[in-house]
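With this grant's support, the team has encoded backbone shapes as discrete tokens. A representative record is reproduced below.
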Amino acid sequence: MPTPPERRSVTVRRVPPLWFNHPANFGHEIPGHPERPQRIKTLEARMDQDEWFGWVRREAPPVARELLYAVHPERYVDFIEGHCKLGGPIDADTVAVEGTWELITRAAGGAVAVVDTLLGQEAPYAFSGMRPPGHHAEAEQAMGFCFFNSVAVAARHATNRHGLDRVLIFDWDVHHGNGTNHSFHRDSDILYASIHQSPMYPGTGAASDVGSGGGEGFTVNLPVPAGTGDNAFCSLTEHVVCQIVREWEPQLVLISAGFDAHAADPLASCQVTEAGYAGMAASMRRACSDVGAPLGLALEGGYNVEALGESVAALAPVLSASEEPAAQDIPLHPLAEQAAGRLRRHWSSVGASAKG
């Protein structure tokens, strides 16, 4: 079991959470592509119906170029910039058009701004509502709609610029975040945990993959079969991910917030509902509060636009409420029990929060 260094708690004021967005969200469009501007249009229209649940909006800034180099080599960044100027496909799923460069630099910049906001104690929670997703982007390979790995860049910014030594990334997108997984595979200062449907694209994220070298134990893959719904996702969150949060005491938690595990999503076969996303957010808020860690989210997938809007609208008030959500008795699902059994050699507390 990894032994955490001395805890550095983060104290935050009672202020509204922050949401980062930008009109560049609407400048990258490939006809017929599921990752389209309507995702953000529908999401923001749904949030507007409830006056954004008290979230305060700010523009996502472009990322400082040198921050990208902590995850993506300079030659790759130069290649992507040049490709965006020319336009065209990198692969069948990942296509650049006019407006792509500004959008992807602001998507990474929004995730970095989340980190700066949280660690600057401006807000306890923040959300980057930018597209496209980023968690499939490898160090030198765009893929799966992703060009730059925004969450990976933000997490490494937290360690390099803010001096943190314990950052936890929780990826609940239905597709495994191969790029994030590989970025920190040998690292012990950034822990990556993922719930994802398997088998499915991109074919990575086996339960046996727990990291390598000094990073062994700091990769936590939680694959689930098609048809998995709220009970399993919430149980894995509460009894595995949240227990690791409490045991390791990260100084910052970032969620790769994909919403394509929703039952209505066209690109996967899980059965999560709006209530499931709210439940996972409530569990994460309680766990982060227990260890004094601010919590940030960056949008990843979610391709049924109505389901995306309703899911985020269910999650947003959980984080903007002045009172912490009441603890729930979440049963230990068989998938969570199995995961706890294989992970206890690294994390002794997983599964221990189950009652009955």
Remarks:
- Confidence is low (pLDDT under 50) at residues 8-13.
- Residues 151 and 324 are 25 Å apart (CA to CA).
- Residues 18-343 form a domain with the Arginase; Chain A fold (CATH 3.40.800.20).
- The chain is about 35% helix and 15% strand.
